[in-house]
Amino acid sequence: MATDESGKRYSEYTEADWKAKGLTAEAIQVTRNSGTERPFTSPLYKHKGSGMYHCVCCRAQLFKSEHKFDSGCGWPAFYLDSFDTMREIEDNSHGMRRVEVRCKRCDAHLGHKFDDARAHNQTVPSDTRYCINGVALQFSPKP
Question: Phi and psi (nearest 5°) for 31?
């Protein structure tokens, strides 16, 4: 696993370390404890800015804004893993079969991947839908 700018491994971070990096209690719960934010609550859900979406924990680039679409699911949705910076894990929790996505760099829980994007929005070029917790993301506008 990767290290931060000081050389400390992300796997060695404590809750206090994450708070010192500016993460909220909700962001820590979601990213470090595989939680889920309430749907339709993230300011990034309807966000339309042009730029990049990064992992809130380690700032790894995850998605380009042009790959975001309105799926109506209640969380920011993307149809393309823009930078190949996520890993997939089979998730059979909550009585369903899903694919969890985590940041490759710091192992933050980001959300889930589904193969139903066109069922939510006919205009996307792929069936892949990354349904990502908004608190797991940080947006950087294009300069």
Answer: -75, -35
pLDDT tens digits for 106-143?
Answer: 999 999 999 998 888 888 898 999 999 999 999 999 98
Tokens describing residue 25: 């209690």
Which residues lie below 8 Å from residue 134, measured CB to CB, with a gap of 6+? 37, 41, 42, 43, 44, 45, 75, 76
Catalytic residue IDs: 131
Cβ neighbours, 10 Å, residue 95: 5
Q: Are 45 and 75 contacting, i.e. CB atoms less than 8 angstroms apart? A: yes
Calculate the dihedral angle through the C-alpha atoms of 14, 19, 23, 26, rounding to the nearest 10 degrees: 80
